[in-house]
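Pasting two entries for a bug report.
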Amino acid sequence: MTDMTKAEKAYDGDQIQVLEGLEAVRKRPGMYIGSTGPRGLHHLVYEIVDNAIDEALAGFCDKIDVRLLPGNVVYVSDNGRGIPVGVQHKTGLPAVTVVFTILHAGGKFGGGSYKVSGGLHGVGASVVNALSTWLEVEVVSEGTLYFQRFERGKAVTELENRGPAPEGRTRGTVVRFQADPEIFKETTVYEYDVLQKRLREQAFLNAGVNIQLTDQRPPEDRPESEQDREIPYANTYCYEGGVSSFVEYINTTKSADVIHPDVIHFAAAAEDGNSTAEIAMQYTDSYQEQILSFANNIHTTDGGTHEDGFKRSLTRVMNDYARKYNILKENDKNLSGEDVREGLTCIISVKLKEAQFEGQTKAKLGNTEISSLVSSLVYKNMMTYLEENPATARTIFDKALSASRAREAARKARDLARRKNALESTTLPGKLADCQSRDVEETEIYIVEGDSAGGSAKGGRDRKFQAILPLWGKMLNVEKARLDKVYSNEKLMPVVMALGTGIGEDFDLSKLRYGKIIIMADADVDGSHIRTLLLTFFFRFMRPLVEEGHVYLAQPPLFRITKGKRHYYAFSDPQRDQIMAELGSGYEIQRYKGLGEMDSEQLWETTMNPETRTMRRVEVEDAIEADEVFTVLMGDKVEPRRDFIMKRAKEANWDV
C-alpha cells in the first residue's frame, strides 16, 4: 500500500462545505427554478405572483398588479393580508425577513394560514431573493407601511417602519426585484407575451381575481419582437366565468367549431372540506382532444389521479347513458375512452389541502382521494346534463359513434398492415436504406423528400449509423384526418414502419429503432410545408418522440460559393453577402433549389456529417401553445391562420 498524500489525509470534517443561508440557491439555481435561461428567469415572476394567488385562494386578495419597469425590474403588488411583520420567535427576526432569507419558511407548512397553495412551498420568495441583484419588499399592515431591502439574498437594511401607509393602501404586499446577471447570464430581459400567457391562465383558474400586466420599459429594454409596442403596454385579465371562460377562450383560438353552444360546467367539494373539484368542457368538430388539468393552479402536464378519475367516469357515464336510451344496441361494443373524448376541450381544476406531486416538476398529481371526488362529480352531473339536454346529447353521441366507426376501420387497417408485413417477411419499408448499428444511442434516420435527394443521401451517409428513408406519394395533413386515414396513407405508413414504435394508442417508445429522427427537406416553401406536415403527424400521433427530444430538423445550405479550388456554404442571405464581401471578386455562386442538386459529398459535408452539420432539435416548451399552433396552422379555418401569420410576420426570422 502506498503512503497517502497530504491532500488525501486532509479529507476530514473540515473539508465538508456548508453553504450558509441562501448560498446553496446561488450555487445550484437550477435545482430550484429549473434553469438559468429564459424559462428560469420568468419563473422568478411566477413565484412572487403565486404568493399573491395563494392569498386569493385563501379569500383575502382579488387584485394583483404586475409591472415590468425600466432596467427589467419586476414589480408585483397584491391587496392580500400582507406578509406578517411581527417577530418570528424561533429566529428572533421579523417574519417578513424570515420569508425572504430562509429556505422552507412560510405560511404553507401548517398553522392554518393557507388551506391550499401552489408555488415552491416555502422556498419561492427566498429563492427569488437569492437570485436577484436586489429585492425590496413593502408591507402594509394595520395602516402602517414597512420596508426592507435585500441584495443577493442578504438583508442590507433592517425592517423599517415608515409610518402611515399612503392613502388608498389599506393592506397588501409589494415586491420589486431585479434578476442577477451573474446568475442569468443568457438574458435578464423578460418577454411580455410569456408572462401574459401565464397570468391569463391564472385569471381563468381563479374566477373574479383581477390581474393586470403592464410593460413600462423603454424599447431598448424589451425583446426585439416587442420593441414597437406603445409605452405603457397593458392588459387586464378577470374572468367571472372562471374555467368555463377558459374553455371558451381555447375554442375561439382553435381552427374548429363547437358542436353545442354551451360549456358544460360542474363543481363540488369533498365532505371533509379539504378539497374541491371544478370541470368545464365543450365538444368541437376537431378530431383531437385537449384536456388541461390543474392542481392548486399548477398545470399538471403529465395528468395524475384527477385526470384519470375524469377519463374513467366520462367513459362510464357515456356508455351507461347510451345503453339506457338505446343509442348503443344490445350487440354493439361499448364506446372507448378515445371515442367519447374526440374533439373535447376540457379544463379540470382541483384544489387540495395537501397536494402530493410526483417528481420535482409537479407535472403529475398523486393524491388518490381526489380521483373518487372527480369521478363521482363527473358521473352524477354529466348524466343529469345529458338527460336534461337530449338534443345536445344526440350531437355528442353522433360524434362519438363516428369516432368509434373510424377506430374500428383503423383497427382493420392496422391488422391488414400487420398481416401484409408478415407475408412479406419484413416490417421495414422497401425504400428504407437501413444502417448497420442497432444501438439507439447512436443510430439516426433521415426522412428525405424525393428519390433524387434520397439517392444523394444514401450515397453520402455513414451507413454504420445513418439510415435513409425517401418519401413519396401525397403527404396527409393529419390535423384533418382520423387514425384510419393514417393507416392507409402510403407516405406516412413507411415512416411508422421504419421507426417501429407504432402510433396512437399502440405507441411504444421502447421500440424506437433510431435515437435521432431527422427531417431533411428542401430549404424553400415546399420544404417548410413538408416539415410542418411531418411535425404535425409526430405531435398528434407520436408525441413522445417530440417530448423526449428525438426529432430534429436538418439545416441544408442555400448557396455554394466557389473561388478557385475553395468552396464556401451559406445558410442564409446575410451569410452569403458576408462571404462574398470577404472574397472580394472572382467567385462563382450557386443557389440550391433543392437537396437533389447537391451530390453525395456535398450533402455529407454540409448537412449530414456530425462534425460539421447544424441541426435543430424540436422541443415542446408549452403543450397548450403547441396544440393551439398546430390547430390554427393546419386546421380548416382560414381566418385564424391568416391572423396568426399577420401578427407574427414582423417577428419572423427570415434569415433562417
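Entry 2 (this is the one that rendered wrong in the viewer):
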Amino acid sequence: MTETPPTAAAAPGPVLVRLSPAQESMWLEQQLHPSAINGGFLSVLVRGDVTAAQVRDACLVVCEDNPQLRGLVTGGSEARMAVHPAPDVLQFEEQPLAAAPGEELAEARRWYRENRVGPWDLTTRTPIAFSLLDHGGERRTLVVGVHHIAFDGRSKFVFARQFLRALDALRTPGSTPHRPDRDLPEHPEIDQELDQVLQYWLAADLPSLPALVLPRGDGADPGEEVRPTPRFDLPAADCARLGRLAQEAGVSFFTGLVACLAAVLHSYGNTRFVVGIPVDTSVPETRDHIGLQVNVVPCLIEVEEGAGFRGLLATAGRALDLVRRHRRVPFGWVLRELRRRHGADVSQGAFDRIGVSCPTVVRDLQEVPGLEFDWDFFAPNSTRSFDLILQLRREGGAAYGRLDFTAAAIDPAAAARLTADYTRLLERLTERPDTPLHLLDEGYVRAPAATRSGIPGQAAAGRGSYRELAAAAAGTDVSPVIHCPVEQFLPTPAISAFSRAGGRIVLDVVDPALGRLGGCAWHTDDPYGTWLTGPSPGLRFRVTDPAGRTLPRGVPGLLGFHGDPRPGTFRAWIDADDRIRLLGLADQVHHWVGRSLDRTEAEAVIASLPDVHEAAVLVEPQAGGATPKVSAVVVPAVGTDGDPRVWRRTVRRVWPSGWPQPAVHLVDRLPRTAAGTVDGAGLGAELRR
C-alpha cells in the first residue's frame, strides 16, 4: 500500500494519509496507555416514521463525506491512517432499549456508558461507531460513539448538520445526499510556534509551580473513571452583569467565565495555577470538516494580591491571549518537548489538572419533514483529558454547566461543592467587582466543646512518646491508654490489634509555634482518619493558606486560630459539621511542577499493610523541577516473608495514583532521633551504603 494524495473520493482500496500533528500526539499517547479511554459520545432522539435503514444510510453518507471517519491507523515506524471505503468499515448496530417517553436520552446515556465505553483499538476499528436504540413505536435514539483522533467538540455540531441533510435527501425522491469530493485539510509547519511555546513556559519558573488545592469531601474513591456532576444553572441576571463587566474590560464573556473559575480557585488558597483551555483550530476552509481541529492550550494565571474581579478579568484576558497565540501547537507536543529538551515533566498534575470549556452551541439545525429531533450534545465525556473540566454552555441570556471529574482527584461531595461555589461566587463577583477577592469569603469555625469529643475526662497534660506506642505494638505491659505525638503515629497492624483489644490511643497535637491544639482519639474504624476530637477548650479554629488568609470549610490548609495571624504547622481541613481533619505536618508535603506528594499519607498507607512493623518514606528533590526520587522503606514484622520482590509488588499496588513510583527497601529497623522521630538523614545514609 503506497501513500497517495488524500482525497475524499471512494477508492477501490484503502488510501494511506499522514496523521496531523495533533492526531500523531494522541496516537502516541494511546500507545503509552493502551487501556485508556479516549473518546466521547453524542446522541439524538428521532421521533417519526423513519426506518433503521434510512438512519444507517445517513450515517454512511456522513462517513463517506469525511475521510477521517473511515480510517484505520497503521503500525510501523511512523503511524499513518488508511482510509477505507465507508461500506467496508461502517460500524452500525441496532438494539432494543425500553425507555419511557421523556426518558429516552437518559436511558441511552446509561446504556452506552454501561455497555460500550472502553478502550478503542484504532488499528481494527474506525474512529466512529453508531448504535440505534429502538424504544418502541416511532421512537429511536441514535448514539454516536467517537474517538477523538478524528472527532472533536466542534465536530458534533458539524455531524448534526450533515446527518440531517443526508437523512432529508434520502427521504426526498430525486435528491442526492453527497457533496463534491474534497481534499483533507493541510497541516502547516509549527516548529517556530513550538519554540515560542517552550520559551514561554521555561521562563515561567515551572519548578516552583505549586500543586492545586481543591476542596475535600467524604474521601476520594480511587480510580480514573470520569464522572459528571448534575447540571447547574447560572442565572440570567448574573450573566448579564458578567457580560457588561467583560465588555467594559474589553474581553469576551468566556473570559469572564474563566475569571470566575480563577476566583473560585483563589478562594481555596491558589494564587498561581494553570488552567487548560480547549480551543478551535479550524479555519474557514475547514469549518465544515469533521475531524480533530480542537487543541488544549495550558495558560498560567497569577492572581495579584488584593485583586478584585475587574483586575482578574484583565488577568484572564492576558492569559487567553496566550491561548490564541499558541492554539496550533498540540498539547502533547508541549509536554513531550519540555520533557525531552529541558527535563521538565509537567504531566499528571501540572497542565492537566483542571480545564474549562465553553463551545458555541449550534441551534440552527435543519428540519426534516415528518420527523422530530432532540439532540444531546452535553453527554458526559468518557475521556480523561483533565482531572477536572468545567463544561459551560451559554444559551440565550443565561448559562449552565457541569463538572466532569475523576474520582481519584476529587470525590462527588467536593465536586458538588466546587460547582456550588462557582454559582455563588459569580453572583458576588459581578455585584461587587471592585471588592478584593479575599474579602468576599471569610470562613472560620468554632471548635466543638471538649465535652463533645470522644475523649472522656481531662485531655492529656503531657506528651507521650513513640516508645509508648512501640511498647503497645510489641504487646508489652503498658497502660490501657497511651499518648503519642500525632506526628509520630502510624496505623500499623500491631497498633490496630492493640486498639481492637481494648487499648486506647490518644494522639497529642502540639504546634511548635501556636502551642497545644488538643488531642485525637484514633480507632480502627477510620484507620487513615485523624480527627481533632478533643480540641483545647476555648479555641476558635480556622484553616489558612501560608500567607495567613482564612480558607473556607472543606479546603485543606494550615490549622491556626482565629485572630492569630501566624500560620500553623499542621495541615488540616474543617468539614461542614465543624470537625477538624488533620492531614499531617506541612513540611511532609513535597511540591514539584504543579504536583505534590504527601509523606504522611504515603507512610500511613504502607504502614497499614499486613505484616508491616514500621514504615517510612524518603523523598529526594531533583534539580530543575524534575520528578523527585522516592524510597518506601518497610520493616517487616518478625517471621514474615522477606522477599523484596513480593514487597515491591505489594507497596506499589497501594501507592497513591499519580505519585512517582517508589524504590522499595526492606530494613530491620528505622533509626530514630532522641525525640522518637525517624532519623531521615541516617536512614538515607543506610540505604546508600
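Dev reply: Rendering is fixed now. As a check, the viewer should reflect this: The two ends are 58 Å apart (CA to CA).
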